[in-house]
């Protein structure tokens, strides 16, 4: 009688049965396939080995289907979460950056505001003297003021200053010291615009705003 292939037996066997088969093979000088065949035949009992293999294959297929369903559900949730983080095609987007040369020193602010219908507003100007945090906050304020002037909605704003982004998002209770006036102005503007999202991005993804701020800082007084 033809015996099932070793791969079929190994797939059907439980961990304890595989261990028992290896021990049997060593003790009786059998091949692992022969030993596993004996172990599973004994485990099958009266219904027979074919019945045991079919039953376990059915169980394995159900386990595979459940695992694939869980993975698909997880992937779907992740896709929905990512989609929620992406601004819609109707959203306005803005980028801001500020620089102080030296720090503290002459401030240059830069910002870019883009609308869903091709609107593009660039801001690049000097803004007095102060620290780099002052510069970042003044750039964000200028961007929000421009957004309000242009009737922006569903605005998503990006900046590479973790200090300012965290300060605004955490609020006065957990924000940075000395930034209260800047924070209050920004929060007021965001409330007026409604639904503004403020997100941090690394500097290499904030190139336009950085260019505009550096351009402003280097401009003659």
Summarize the structure.
Helix content is 56%, strand content 18%. The protein is α/β, with parallel strands linked by helices and 221 residues long.
What descriptive keywords fit this protein?
221 residues, Nucleotidyltransferase, domain 5, 5-stranded mixed β-sheet, 8 helices, alpha/beta, 2 domains
What secondary-structure arrangement, pairings included, does this model have?
Layout lengths: L5 H7 L2 H14 L3 H13 L4 H37 L6 E10 L3 E10 L5 E11 L1 H18 L5 E5 L2 H9 L9 H14 L3 E4 L6 H12 L3
Parallel strand pairs: 1-4, 4-5
Antiparallel strand pairs: 1-2, 2-3
Helix pairs in contact: 1-4, 2-3, 3-4, 5-7
Structural commentary:
- The chain is α/β, with parallel strands linked by helices and 221 residues long.
- It has 2 domains: 76 residues, no CATH class; 127 residues, Ribonuclease H-like superfamily/Ribonuclease H (Nucleotidyltransferase, domain 5), CATH 3.30.420.
- Helices cover 56% and strands 18% of the residues.
- The protein contains 8 helices and 5 strands.
- It has a 5-stranded mixed sheet with strand order 3-2-1-4-5.
- Helix 2 packs across helix 3, helix 3 packs across helix 4 and helix 5 runs parallel beside helix 7.
- 28% of the residues are buried.
- The mean pLDDT is 90.
Mean pLDDT, to the nearest integer, reads: 90
CATH topology of the largest domain: Nucleotidyltransferase, domain 5
What is the strand arrangement across the widest sheet? 3-2-1-4-5
Give the biggest sheet.
5 strands, mixed
């Amino acid at each position: 009688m033809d015996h099932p292939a070793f791969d079929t037996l190994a797939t059907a066997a439980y961990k304890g049965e595989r261990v028992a088969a290896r021990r049997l093979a060593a003790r009786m000088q059998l091949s692992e396939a022969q030993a596993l065949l004996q172990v599973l035949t004994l485990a099958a009992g009266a219904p027979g080995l074919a019945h045991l293999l079919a039953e376990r294959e059915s169980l394995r297929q159900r386990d595979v289907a459940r695992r694939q369903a869980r993975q698909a559900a997880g992937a779907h949730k992740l896709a929905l979460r990512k989609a929620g983080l992406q601004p819609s095609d109707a959203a306005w987007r803005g980028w801001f950056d500020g620089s102080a040369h030296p720090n503290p020193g002459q401030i240059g602010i830069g910002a870019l505001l883009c609308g869903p219908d091709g609107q593009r507003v660039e801001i690049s100007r000097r803004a007095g003297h102060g620290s780099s945090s002052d510069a970042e906050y003044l750039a964000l304020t200028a961007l929000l003021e421009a957004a309000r002037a242009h009737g922006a909605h569903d605005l998503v704003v990006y900046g590479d200053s973790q200090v300012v982004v965290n300060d605004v998002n955490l609020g006065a209770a957990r924000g940075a010291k000395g930034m209260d006036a800047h924070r209050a102005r920004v929060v007021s503007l965001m409330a007026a615009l409604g639904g503004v999202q403020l997100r941090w991005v690394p500097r290499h993804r904030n190139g336009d705003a950085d260019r505009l701020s550096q351009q402003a800082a280097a401009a003659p007084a």
